[in-house]
Amino acid sequence: MTLPAISYKRHRFPPQIIAHAVWLYFRFPLSLRLVEEMLFERGILVSYETVRRWARKFGPDYACRLKRKRPSHNDIWPLDEVAVTIAGQKHWLWRAVDQDGYVLDEIVQSRRNTKAAKRLLTRLLRKQGVAPKRILTDKLPSYGAARRQIMPKVDHRSHKGLNNRAENSHVPLRKREQMMQGFRSAGGLQRFTSIFSAVRNLFVPSRTCRSALATHIHRLQAITEWKAAAGVLA
Question: What's the Cα-to-Cα distance from 186 to each of 116, 117, 178, 191, 225, rounded to whole Å?
């Protein structure tokens, strides 16, 4: 399905500047004010609130236009959940990655139980379209109960050290959380992390990029794809 082109009508700044500002914000551990300062250094006078509005308006559109990794029946899904405190209340960010650390899906929930785990697995199956070869989790019993109901034929291995890829995938978001001084709402966290992970999936080199040249080529391809998604290719 081909998505319609992104409209930049009634925006004073050119699409290239808007896309660049949104890229800076989601790609690097920068606050809105730092993005404002970096744009100012280039002679672009724009407020951090404008950058916030651009990120909220255009970020989801960019993210949904980025190509996703093709799923496979041989995939392995490490799953994990991490606590995030929002306005004094604990929430849980449930995340699934594949064997290469590619973020498949994540969902913010207020509970850490079987119902929450079932919701994650249901979303994953709907989004991926195929069940994995295996899922890896920690010792939380909710995963096993949910797996038996949602994907009973899938192999499940539960051990503290097996889902390190899922646990490591929380680190970039933790850095952003510190830079942003926390999140204001569960919905805001869900919106941010869905875009943040889509951009990270695109720009972080895979394990096959073992040389500097391969990494450079990957980055050039990622930048081209980002510009294509934003509709700002020259």
Answer: 15, 17, 16, 9, 30
Mark whether 184 and 224 lie in a shared domain.
no
Sequence-ordered alpha helix ranges (H) in 66-211: 114-128, 141-150, 164-168, 170-179, 186-203
Phi-psi region of 126 (alpha: psi -120 to 50; beta: other; left: phi over 0): alpha
Position 110 in a domain: yes
Range of the domain at 61: 15-65+204-230
In terms of Cβ atoms closer than 10 Å to its own Cβ (0-12, 13-18, 19+), residue 12 is: exposed
Q: Which two tokens stand for residue 218?
A: 């990957």
Q: For residue range 204-231, list pLDDT tens digits in order.
A: 887 776 788 888 999 999 999 999 999 9
| Identity of residue 190 | Q
In a domain, 7, yes or no: no
- Judge whether 71 lies within some domain: no
Q: pLDDT at position 57, please?
A: 96
Question: Is 20 a domain residue?
Answer: yes
